[in-house]
Design brief:
It contains 21 helices and 30 strands. By secondary structure, it is an alpha/beta fold. Among the domains are: 139 residues, Rossmann fold; 128 residues, ANL, C-terminal domain (GMP Synthetase, Chain A, domain 3), CATH 3.30.300. The structure holds 5'-O-[(S)-ethoxy(hydroxy)phosphoryl]adenosine.
């Protein structure tokens, strides 16, 4: 495990400068959050969370709050509720049925829909009836592999409605990665689409499912939404069109209440081994956490706000802050199907102007991309509807933070840099708008009712001005309830580093004021453009290529994507290529990775090397390789079996240049 290091000199300089932005008086006046929240929540976190939980619609009110048998938490366990009812029915019953739930914007120009809460309820009810007609019962897992279209949300809420945990798999994953996830959760039903529009082309999704299902013989039902109209192959008896099965169903569905600890969904994420982990979340605590953080962190006013999380529904950000948090709070949202440059590099700014978006939530990678594309693009649109900006998914460098504030937020919108994980379910560390003064690049403080600490290798809190490992010291409502089917791995991964304390895998620094700066992963998890990938997973894919003997992968810092994948690869003796013939093989390996995992896992750079640096016990020295990949001076190499190997790799890197 490496010690986190502060990103660069500019970062340090700003840290010392301690630049601050205090909330404006106007914002303070109307903010949902107040300074008292911290005192109230911290005086009795359980009572505070219980108060927040009572804002949900419960069929049976809970009397128990937290049962903590470390590391297993149960929240509100004797209460019953239905997540879909909380997201839909109660808004309709309260007379808000005509309010727009979703302004959906398709990638092709002019392709758009406005869907009200009543319409959404009818769609979800039909889909719930359809799933029941296909034999899906409470507890059965359903895989969802969809583009960013309303049916993705409909499918998720329909599963929730009948108590069938969904496992949404990001549309960028390839057939093998899909199959692994479908098999691990033993899904028997898959919901997908023919494809989706990305960068102006109709990309195929059903085709990946067809390949994946060759490895998943137990899947006997596939529902396919027609989105692009492209040709698809069809397995009679297994495949059905969504519109043929769902549309004729009754638009009323009597939802059953489930216990608060009933599993709501599984979301696969990368850990430090090659096998992705099925993080699972349950219902009552998760909904409480996502709705509460959504209300205070984004300061949402459901009557007037137009909320936009520009993330994919296939990641946890989409689950918590497109589906469950915002829908529970009954806001109007924008959902956009495509890439930021489809129809022009100002597409986002056009959407904001057109719909009067008031709150934007996105990842630093997107912000850095927009910086590169130029200030003139946002400047040519009226973005004055915006009143709050959020960032998530990776550390935001102070330069990007300032650009976001100035060029998107018009120097008037507070920025909330929100730290959290698939495992935490919802936001954990963030400023509160209207309350917390912000510093460019800092996550600032734990959310009310959340207890975080920065500790050294022995688990002792570090003092102000020091860096260390981020831990969460008390259970929280949205916390993962486990890794699907692997209790031991759950204990081992999160709870074994320090006794009774959740170790997040991130480094953090507490500055002189005691405010938190998130510094990224300290384990073998990489964060590439906000996508979480494990070094082991990519290595595993590379060694699956017939020419490869061994591979070592590291995440090297990258100005645009945060981290970039660099792979060091040795070939089997018979496959040594003459110099000059390398390029073709490297390209082949890259494509192989894309096929096994996803195009997002393609390395920025692949270095073919005759050997890899190892310790005397045979472990690959990743830290050293990271130094090489980031062009840092090499440190101590005395434990290496062959220091010459490192020197050689360093020379190889230099001769290859930075980019391929
Ligand atoms: C990183 C995404 C710095 C972190 C919601 C974490 C961040 C991992 C931030 C989780 C942030 C997320 N500042 N780093 N504001 N937000 N991270 O599971 O390393 O896809 O452990 O969840 O992203 O990624 P995941």
């Amino acid at each position: 495990m490496t010690t986190p290091r502060v990103e660069n000199e500019a970062f340090e300089a700003l840290l010392h400068e301690q630049r601050r932005f205090s909330p404006s008086e106007a914002f303070v006046q109307q903010a949902n959050a107040t300074a008292e929240l911290y005192a109230e929540a911290n005086a009795d976190p359980e009572a505070w969370w219980a108060e927040e939980a009572r804002r949900l619609t419960w069929s049976t009110p809970f009397t128990k709050v937290l049962e903590w048998d470390a590391p297993f938490a149960r929240w509100f366990s004797d209460g019953t509720l239905n997540a879909s009812v909380n997201c839909l029915d109660r808004h309709v019953e309260d007379g808000r049925g005509e309010k727009v739930a979703l302004h959906w914007v398709g990638e092709p120009e002019g392709d758009r829909l406005a869907i009200t809460y009543s319409e959404m309820l009818a769609k979800v009810s039909k889909a719930a009836n359809a799933l029941t007609s296909l034999g899906v019962q409470a507890g059965d897992r359903v895989a969802i592999y969809m583009p960013m279209i309303p049916e993705a949300m409909v499918a998720m809420l329909a599963c929730a409605r009948i108590g069938a945990p969904h496992s949404v798999i990001f549309g960028g994953f390839s057939a093998e990665a899909l199959a692994d996830r479908i098999l691990d959760a033993d899904c028997r039903v898959v919901i997908t689409a023919d494809g989706g529009f990305r960068r102006g082309v109709a990309a195929g999704l059903k085709v990946q499912i067809d390949d994946a299902l060759k490895l998943c013989p137990d899947v006997d039902r596939v529902l396919v939404v027609r989105r692009t109209g492209q040709d698809v192959t069809w397995v009679e008896g297994r495949d059905r069109w969504w519109h043929e099965v769902v549309d004729p169903q009754p638009s009323v569905h009597e939802a059953q209440a489930f216990p608060a600890e009933h599993p709501l969904y599984i979301m696969y994420t990368s850990g430090t081994t090659a096998k992705p982990k099925g993080i699972f979340h349950t219902t009552g605590g998760y909904l409480t956490h996502t709705a509460t953080t959504h209300r205070y962190v984004f300061d949402v006013k459901p009557e007037t706000d137009i909320f936009w999380t520009a993330a994919d529904i296939g990641w946890v950000t989409g689950h918590s802050y497109i589906v469950y948090g915002p829908m529970t709070n009954g806001v109007t949202q924008v959902m956009y199907e495509g890439t930021p440059d489809a129809g022009g590099q100002d597409r986002w700014w056009r959407i904001i102007e057109e719909y009067g978006v008031t709150i934007l939530y996105c990842a630093p990678t997107a912000i850095r991309t927009f910086m590169k594309w130029g200030d003139h693009l946002p400047a040519s649109h009226d973005l004055t509807s915006l009143r709050l900006l959020g960032s998530v998914g990776e550390p935001i460098n102070p330069g990007a933070w300032m650009w976001y504030r100035t060029h998107i937020g018009g120097d008037r919108c507070p920025i909330v840099d929100t730290w959290w994980q698939t495992e935490t379910g919802g936001i954990m560390i963030t400023p509160l708008p209207g309350v917390t003064a912000t510093k460019p690049g800092a996550g600032m403080v734990p959310f009310p009712g959340i207890s975080a600490d920065v500790v050294d290798n022995d688990g002792a809190s570090v003092s102000n001005g020091q860096g260390g490992l981020l831990v969460i010291t008390r259970p929280w409502p949205g916390m993962l309830r486990g890794i699907w089917g692997d209790e031991e791995r759950y204990r081992e991964t999160y709870w074994s580093r320090f006794d009774g304390v959740y170790f997040a895998g991130d480094g953090a620094k507490r500055d002189e004021d005691g405010d938190l700066w998130l510094l990224g992963r300290v384990d073998d998890v990489m964060n590439v453009s906000g996508h979480r990938l494990s070094t082991a997973e990519v290595e595993h894919a590379i060694v699956g290529h017939p020419a490869v003997a061994e591979a070592a992968v590291v995440g090297a810092s990258d100005e645009m994507t945060g981290q970039a994948i660099v792979a060091f690869v040795t070939l089997k003796a018979a496959n040594q290529v003459a110099s000059g013939g390398e390029a073709a093989l490297i390209e082949e390996i890259r494509n192989h990775i894309a096929q096994v995992i996803s195009p997002i896992a393609k390395p920025r750079q692949i270095i073919l090397t005759p050997d890899l640096p190892k310790t005397r016990s045979g472990k690959i020295m990743r830290r050293l390789l990271r130094d090489v990949a980031e062009h840092r001076a090499l440190g101590d190499v005395t434990t290496l079996t062959d220091p010459a190997v490192v020197k050689m790799i360093d020379e190889l890197m230099a001769s290859h240049g930075e980019e391929e």
